[in-house]
Every structure is written in C-alpha cells, then in structure tokens.
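FORM 12-B: Structure-to-Sequence Request
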C-alpha cells in the first residue's frame, strides 16, 4: 500500500431531496438557458470530448471519455462558463430583464454600460475563476479586483492581470481570501462579489455560476451520444468548493432521474471538506494552508447549495493525494498509441488519474468493485483545465515531480 493512500467512502447519508438547488436551480430549462447564453459569446465552441479507446481497453472498461476544457475560450479552463453567466445574469437583473432576452452583444454594448454605470467585480481565486471574472469585467468595460491565496502561482497571477484586473497574492488561505474580498466589496459602493461559494444571504450569484457550469455536463452528455454511447455509467468530477461537482451532479440527476450514472466526487486530500462532510453527515470545514498542487481544489469550506445536491445524489466521495493527479496528467499527456494526448493541469487530471489507478492497482481492487467498474463501464471525466501554469505542468509531466510510488 502506498504511504499516502487514496481514501474513499460510499454515500451513506440519510435521504435528502436535494432542495431547491436540484429542483429548480439546475432544472433542464435553466441548463438550456445557460447554454443559450454561452452560444451568444463570440468564439463559443463546445470543447472536445476525447475518446480514449486504448486506455479504456487497457483498464478493462468499455469506454473512457475526457471532456477537454483546456480549449475553452482561450482561457484554458471551464471556469469561464460560470463567471460569464453569473455576470450576465447580474447585469440582466439590474436592467430588469430575463437573461434569455439579453445576448452577449447587448451585454457589452455602450448602452448597457451607460445604464448600469460603474461596477467593480471582486473575486477570490486560485487562478481560473478570477481570470474568468476579469475577462468578463473587461468585456463589459468594468473593473475587477482579484485576490489569490498564499502560495498561488505567479504565472496564474500574470494571466489575471493580463485580463486587466487589479490582482495580487494574499497571505491567506482560499476561504479567508473569500472573506477578505467580501469585506473589500462591502466598502466599495460599486462593489459586487462574484464568488462560486455561498454564505448566509449570498446564494444567488453562486447559483448562477453553477447553472453556467451545468452547461459543460450537458455538452459532454450530448457529445457522448453523438459518439454512439447511450449515456455514461460512471462520472468522476473534482471538487474545490463543490460548485462544479454540484452542477454536474445536478445535471445528471435531473436528466436521468434514478437511472443516472454512478457519480464520484474527487477532492484533494489537503482540502477534502466534502469527503469529510460525507463521513460526518454534516458540513465540516478544513482549515490550515490547504497546500496541494491541485490549486483549484484547495478550498476548505464547501458551497452549501452544492452540498445539498451532493449529499442527496452523489454515490462516492474520494480524498486523493497529489500523486493521483500527477499520474492523471502523465497518463493523458503520454497516451497509449492510437489515443490522442490531452494537456491536463493539476486540478484537471485527478478524475482520470483516479480511474487509472483504481483500474490498474490491486491495492484499490476494493474501490473498483464498490464502484462497479468493469468491461461494461462507460467512464466520463472532466479535465477542467489545461496547463494554466506551463512551468509547473512541465515539472510534473516532463521532470516527474510527484511520482506515484
Ligand atoms: C481547474 C479547476 N477544476 C476544478 C475546480 C473546482 O471547482 P469548484 O471550486 O466549483 O469545486 C476549480 C476551481 O477553481 C478549477 O480551477
């Protein structure tokens, strides 16, 4: 057994109906609205769903599919789907319109800018969310202020500044950085926080962000059908605050009802608040500096809207050490002959890394059995970012940082 093992639990929490997040926030109609908005953004294209046949055969699976978000809007991560939609819905609300009446062109027009006046968007981020908020603010001709947790990557900071934001790295962990930007925004008469996590009285914007993310699950499911699969039997999705995981889970639960895929929520073990909450059957936080190479997953306090969806519908919760994602990055970057390579970043590769370990390492035969992964399984993973820090990516993939053994 490796010294730093993968931990997991099945969902044994008492039945809960998923609350409003599942019933209305992530309904099929809301998912479609988000998709319709995304299609109005210039340059919008569905990201590829990569079919890894050789890897599937090697691991004893029927199919292995990876949604490659490294190609999302030149921003190299899925986060843009949430931030752009939340900002658009916020502006629509200020204009007294429904989002379905407002396309991207009108959103960024001089008339809209004149009507809404000056806004400064605030966000805390490991990199991807903040870059997406800065991008959206820039398109609207508005300002953004972005704070990053201690230990954040300089390359990711420069990417955010490159979108025109005022941005810096703080000496706080992610959750404290969220509280800090909230305070900054409260002191600014034009300040609006665009955060993917909730706190009492702040649920609307995180809900919109989740709706934006749910579009990615819908895209993948549609692409899977075009590739001849009925549906995925297993979905693996990673979680930081869990907004993404809740959105993906919400999509599959609403679309397939009780006939949906087996879903596994994967976290970085340094910040596994959802896994621990599942064990405790209540939301628990993880504190400290949350240091992991999976910067996007380094969040110690889960989004409550998402938690409601996950505790009611997710099947498994996994706490994965860094070597699991490093393995996933290498497996995708150096594929078996005949499969296409995928550039997957530290927070993007953990789902595929987990599947590759569970299906090839006898130490995890018990987990494989519990998940029911076999020759009939069609696995869907989300590679949620590309090499958002190219140097760090090379040190893992080329130089072998963080080996599996
Ligand atoms: C690349 C990447 N993947 C996954 C996540 C996790 O998303 P969430 O915080 O909504 O759980 C993040 C969050 O920043 C991310 O940047």
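FORM 12-B RESPONSE
SEQUENCE OUT:
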């Amino acid at each position: 057994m490796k010294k730093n093992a993968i931990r997991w639990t099945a969902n044994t929490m008492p039945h809960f109906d998923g609350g409003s997040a599942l019933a209305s926030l992530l309904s099929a109609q809301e998912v479609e609205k988000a998709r319709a908005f995304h299609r109005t953004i210039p340059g919008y294209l569905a990201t590829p769903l990569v079919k890894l046949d050789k890897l599937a055969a090697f691991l004893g699976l029927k199919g292995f599919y990876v949604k490659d978000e490294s190609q999302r809007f030149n921003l190299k991560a899925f986060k843009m789907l949430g931030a752009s939609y939340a900002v658009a819905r916020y502006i629509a609300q200020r204009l007294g319109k429904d989002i379905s009446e407002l396309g991207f062109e009108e959103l960024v027009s001089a008339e809209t800018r004149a009507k809404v006046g000056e806004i400064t968007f605030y966000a805390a981020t490991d990199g991807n969310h903040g870059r997406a908020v800065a991008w959206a603010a820039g398109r609207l001709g508005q300002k953004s202020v972005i704070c990053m947790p201690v230990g954040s990557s300089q390359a990711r900071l420069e990417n955010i500044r490159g979108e025109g934001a005022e941005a810096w790295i703080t000496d706080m962990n992610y959750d404290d950085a969220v509280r800090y930007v909230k305070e900054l925004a409260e002191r600014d008469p034009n300040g609006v926080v665009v955060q993917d996590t909730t706190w009492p009285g702040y649920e609307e914007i995180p809900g919109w962000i989740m709706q934006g993310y749910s579009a990615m699950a819908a895209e993948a499911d549609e692409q899977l059908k075009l590739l001849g699969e009925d549906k995925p039997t297993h979905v693996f999705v990673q979680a930081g605050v869990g907004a993404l995981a809740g959105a993906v889970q919400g999509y599959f639960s609403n679309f397939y009802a009780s006939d949906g895929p087996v879903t596994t929520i994967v976290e970085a073990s340094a910040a596994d608040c959802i896994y621990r909450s599942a064990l405790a059957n209540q939301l628990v936080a993880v504190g400290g500096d949350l240091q992991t190479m999976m910067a996007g997953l380094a969040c110690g306090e889960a989004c409550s809207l998402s938690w409601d969806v996950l505790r009611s519908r997710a099947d498994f919760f996994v706490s994965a050490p860094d070597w699991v994602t490093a393995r996933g990055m290498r497996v995708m970057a150096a594929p078996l002959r005949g499969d296409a390579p995928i550039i997957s970043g530290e927070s993007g590769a953990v789902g595929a890394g987990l599947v590759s370990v569970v299906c090839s390492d006898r130490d995890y035969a018990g987990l494989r059995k519990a998940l029911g992964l076999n020759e009939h399984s069609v696995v869907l993973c989300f590679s949620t970012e590309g090499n958002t820090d190219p140097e760090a990516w090379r040190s893992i993939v080329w130089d072998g940082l963080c080996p599996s053994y």
